[in-house]
Amino acid sequence: MTKYYFLLFLFLLAGESFAQNNLDSLVQIRGFAIAAPRPDGLPDFIKFVNEELAPRKVNTLILRVDYNYRFESHPELRDSVTLSKKDVRKLVDACKKQGIAIIPQINLLGHQSWAEKTENLLKVYPDFDETPWVKMPAKGEYKWPNPDGLYCKSYCPLHPGVHKVVFELVDEIMEAFEAKAFHAGMDEVFYLGEDKCPRCAGRDKAVLFANEVQKIRDHLAMKNQELWIWGDRLIDGRTTGIGLWAASYNHTYPAIDLIPRDVIICDWQYTRDNQTAVYFAMKGLRVVTCSWNRPEIALQQVDSHVRSRDLSNKELKGRFYGLAHTVWSGPTPFLKGYYANTQDPKDGDKTPWNTFKVMFEKIGKLETGH
After folding, report:
1. Which of these, 76, 232, 337, 359, has the minimum number of CB atoms within 10 Å of its CB?
2. What are the residue ranges of helices labelled H in the chain?
3. Phi and psi at residue 333, in whole multiples of 5°?
4. Taking a C-beta distance cutoff of 8 angstroms, is the pair 285, 263 a contact?
5. Residue 1 lies in a domain
């Protein structure tokens, strides 16, 4: 009998291991993306990591750090309140304990402003601005569309001083977060290769975009680190009908054939499952499909991910790399809505927190085959 129970124990242990390995083989990346917490919100965020992310087997945390870190290389670029090395260490230790890899993000190229606010890089180094003639509106006066086509500012990728600054920031947070991958953002780049720019005028926008991806990727590769970016600028918005936000209208999309094949694409298609993950995979790129605030779309994306892997040959299968949930706020409002299960005044349960719960409940069921 003792031998019987021992064999049963081994069988159950192997079964548990197989279930985990099976989930890993189906959804290699199980991600969660959000802004990094401020210091006063760190304890609550670590609690969320331990009690909510880990039980759902989230294994990748994409943190939008930007200037929310006490940079030593460029203290002039710090936010007024920032995470210290000690704060980051607490978060890194918590994630290590739970088997969660942190991927820090600083928005590079685009998203150098938002509404009426100029972000720190162009505020401190205005000569990096791709469109210095476009003036920021007064507070409360930003509107879209507008005569200048202003959504977010970009830095000029050909400015001779910009990469020294941004790469020093990248290197510093990569070391602080002990990260093996970096997320450069690079989404919704509307300003690039502008006619009035003395460096970029007349240049192919796709080549400019691809060269910037290559430059960032090569910098990271010197330390055996990976580059992750959002995928919208690599999709033809007109031909696909996806539009100018989740795809490109300014001819950056041919860059998909110019960028290195080891760049990881985070494919955000929030209002419908556009099957763009198949496009990226067919181009030889690993793709992580991203949800936001539409639970029904997130469920379709989980189904599409599993189906695509099932239907793919061995070359394609591994390129359907995983699924991630994205949150476009700081942790504090998200956690408030999450724990209170707050409804949206207009859309009811179409919230980032409910979408996260629904999506990862379905991912969890893949492990048991339900």
Report:
1. 76
2. 2-26, 42-48, 85-97, 120-124, 162-176, 205-221, 237-240, 276-282, 295-311, 314-317, 331-340, 352-368
3. -65, -35
4. yes
5. no
Q: Specify if 115 maps to a domain.
A: yes
C-beta separation of 204 from 250 below 8 A = no
Enumerate the β-bridge partners of residue 308.
none
pTM: 0.94
Rg for the chain, CA atoms, rounded: 21
Long-range contacts of 12-20 (CB under 8 A, 24+ apart): 19/367, 19/368, 20/57, 20/367
- Which pLDDT score is estimated for 11? 41
Is 7 domain-assigned? no
Model confidence at 367, pLDDT cuts 50, 70, 90, reads confident
Tell me the C-alpha distance between 280 and 312, whole Å: 13
pLDDT in tens, 38-70: 999 999 999 999 999 999 999 999 999 999 999
Residue 274 contacts residue 243 (beta carbons within 8 Å): no
Per the structure, the count of domains in the chain is 1
Residues 6+ apart with CB under 8 A from 35: 63, 64, 66, 68, 327, 329, 330, 331
Q: Which domain holds residue 136?
A: 20-368
Average pLDDT over the chain, rounded to an integer:
94
Residue 217 belongs to domain with CATH number: 3.20.20.80
- For residue 179, tell me if it sits in a domain: yes
Q: What is the DSSP letter of 191?
A: -
Q: Which amino acid is at 102?
A: I
Q: Are 20 and 64 in contact (CB under 8 A)?
A: no
What digits encode the pLDDT tens for the residues 91-101? 999 999 999 99
